[in-house]
Amino acid sequence: MVEHAAVNRGVVGSSPTSGANFIEGIEDPQSFDTDPAQISEGSGARIRKVKFPVTIEHRRFSAKIYGKSVAYPFYRVAYKAGGKRIIRSFSEFKEAKAAAQSKVRELAQGSQTAALSSKDASAALAIRDALESFARQTGHAFTALEAVTGFLDGVKYLPAGYSLPEAVRSFAATVAVVQGKPVAEAAEEFLAIRAPKAKAAEGRRSQLSPVYEAHVESWLREFTKMFPGHSLGDLNKDLLSRYVSTLEKLSPKSKNDRRAALAMFFRWCVRQNYLPPTQRLTGADAMQKEPLDAAPTEFYRPAELRALLGAARGQMRAVIAVQALAGLRLEEARKLKWENVFGVEGHIEITALNAKTRRRRLVEICPALKAWLEPYRECTGKVWTDTATLNGFVSAFARLRDSLGIPSRRNGLRHAFCSFHFAVHANENLTAAQAGNSPAMIHQHYKGLATRAEAEKWFNVCPAGETP
User: Fold this and answer.
1) What CATH architecture applies to the domain 302-458?
2) What is the pLDDT of residues 5-36, one digit of tens each?
3) Among 189-198, 219-228, 234-243, 285-294, which stretch is predicted with the lowest mean pLDDT?
4) C-alpha triplet 191, 195, 201: angle, nearest 5°
5) Which of the 8 DSSP states describes residue 23?
6) What does DSSP assign to residue 78?
7) Where does residue 239 rank: exposed (0-12), middle (13-18), buried (19+ CB within 10 A)?
8) How many CB atoms lie within 10 A of CB 378?
9) CA within 20 to 30 Å of 295's CA: 35, 97, 159, 302, which one?
10) E strand or H helix at 242
11) 324: closest CA among 247, 421, 240, 407?
């Protein structure tokens, strides 16, 4: 009677309807148990049957203790916390009773731990230990809520089959720490690295064109003067637009050349970690290429070639002849040696060292060109030595042309060769092989510009008194 009396005083309730709206009975509500664990701590107490489920109440919260059964020989404490139904098992009634009393008090005090199962509690403690360990190692502290919500926020963006740690490691491998760098300082560093590549060792060709490198140097310094004191990180689309607006008087090609040099500089800055890989400067509207003017391809005519060759003397005549009748570029002709002209019978050898494409080619010598070159057969050394620089030849040729009243036509001799050669052979592959160009370029720029009759006149321009 001792234990049962305690129940009736409100600590333990045995009414079969008590808490019926909370949980259905796991056992037969009329079951009885005479396990010795039901004996109270008072001495001399007699064993008495207890009717299950037993309800433990505190204020408006309650828990039920269900008795043992054949199928499940444990006492079970059932209560509701955090909107969940929780059941815990005990081998002894006194343990179940103590647990039930503890839980209803926790619930009455507003504690949320009552909603945790033993598995949940173990997981929570493991999370706490992991966060404390992370804070000690890195100095960065996060709450459990921050850690979980951050993890879930990252996972939702991952494709199927990828883990968050894997994605983070991959991302970290591609992220560079960007260093602040003044625009002018970065540009000078860029130019200093490229300068040695524009110088050729004896008997070798430079990696970069000295002429083009001089242009790049001029363009970059022109750009940096617009933004004194600015860092690379300050550059944006508006500043680039301001720079390009100063180039309005230039041709589309000249503006595109400057855009290409800037884009090359920005890519180098990314590799040096002066700009982030995600920089979008090259994607700015001001950096987009402009369509080139559809200007006609200008070239000299047979009568003009005859006048130029007739008036030219010495090395000037030879350079004009190989450009007009063999299609050499001016730079290729200027670097040509007489051994390249007469070394291979019937052909001019353009070495890889001198070719724009860095590939050796042989150019056929037509009968008219052979006649113009014959007086030079005993010459040695370079074909053009009168003036070492490219501008020196250009100036000399301009004086000759002006003296004859012939208008200036940019690259007019090479353009004439390509146009007339294609008109004679109607084969872009053959013309491209001779000119050191691509068939597509020949087809695009030289097809249909000259008639076959005019082309035959061009390749029949010979010294006075000679016929091909």
Assistant:
1) Orthogonal Bundle (1.10)
2) 333 333 443 333 333 333 344 444 444 454 44
3) 285-294
4) 170
5) -
6) E
7) middle
8) 7
9) 302
10) helix 237-245
11) 421
